[in-house]
């Protein structure tokens, strides 16, 4: 997959995981990896960017004697997921067009 396209898709996949509920880094990597490969070194810059854009917020919570940083989706993140879904029909038309061009 093209690196720029994958970058945008990874953002939306991270937001989709957080749409299910607050989560933490390792768990987000695990959940997203079920769909598309991602590493922790890729995830954290994405989370920082999403946080700076207001798409996610963070809070800390004690877990097994340690403090764990949780991420939760905010309204701009929800809007971004919806915009991605709204583009699906347009993308299907583009793929169909490209496929049709390959059959000539």
UniProtKB/TrEMBL annotation:
<dbReference type="InterPro" id="IPR005149">
    <property type="entry name" value="Tscrpt_reg_PadR_N"/>
</dbReference>
<dbReference type="InterPro" id="IPR052509">
    <property type="entry name" value="Metal_resp_DNA-bind_regulator"/>
</dbReference>
<dbReference type="InterPro" id="IPR036390">
    <property type="entry name" value="WH_DNA-bd_sf"/>
</dbReference>
<dbReference type="Pfam" id="PF03551">
    <property type="entry name" value="PadR"/>
</dbReference>
<feature type="domain" description="Transcription regulator PadR N-terminal">
    <location>
        <begin position="14"/>
        <end position="80"/>
    </location>
</feature>
<dbReference type="InterPro" id="IPR036388">
    <property type="entry name" value="WH-like_DNA-bd_sf"/>
</dbReference>
<protein>
    <submittedName>
        <fullName>PadR family transcriptional regulator</fullName>
    </submittedName>
</protein>
<dbReference type="InterPro" id="IPR011991">
    <property type="entry name" value="ArsR-like_HTH"/>
</dbReference>
């Amino acid at each position: 997959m093209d690196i720029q396209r994958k970058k945008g898709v990874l953002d939306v996949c991270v937001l989709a995981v957080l749409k299910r509920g607050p989560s933490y880094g390792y768990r987000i990597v695990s959940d997203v990896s079920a769909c598309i490969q991602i590493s922790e070194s890729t995830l954290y810059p994405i989370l920082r960017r999403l946080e700076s854009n207001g798409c996610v917020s963070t809070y800390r919570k004690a877990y097994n004697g340690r403090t764990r940083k949780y991420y939760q989706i905010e309204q701009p993140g929800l809007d971004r997921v919806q915009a991605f879904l709204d583009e699906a029909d347009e993308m299907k038309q583009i793929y169909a067009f490209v496929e049709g061009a390959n059959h000539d």
